[in-house]
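Q: Sequence in, structure out?
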Amino acid sequence: MSATTDAKLNEEKNEVVLEDDLDKSNLEQAEPVDSQDDPEHHKTERSFVRKLALTLMPMVWVLYLFNYLDRNNIAQAKLNTFEKDLGLEGSEFNTAVSILNVG
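A: Exactly. Output:
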């Protein structure tokens, strides 16, 4: 290899192709490492994704449920005397609703 060696990553084939400016006939190609074809890799990946899903999904559903309840409660509270009780003026209530919808 010389100082003028240019490395390009071929993302489609997941391999590195080296081009030497001095000698174009010597193209060196690295064999792609394809661990995704390994059955053990698939088994480990499935196990990891399953554990991750079982850990995170219940928490995400609880957070979604509380967000849904909060959005409904603030709408009902506006019908009652929510703005007057908290002293909200102008667009302060709209800001609170926006925060609940984004969050």
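The chain has three helices and three strands.
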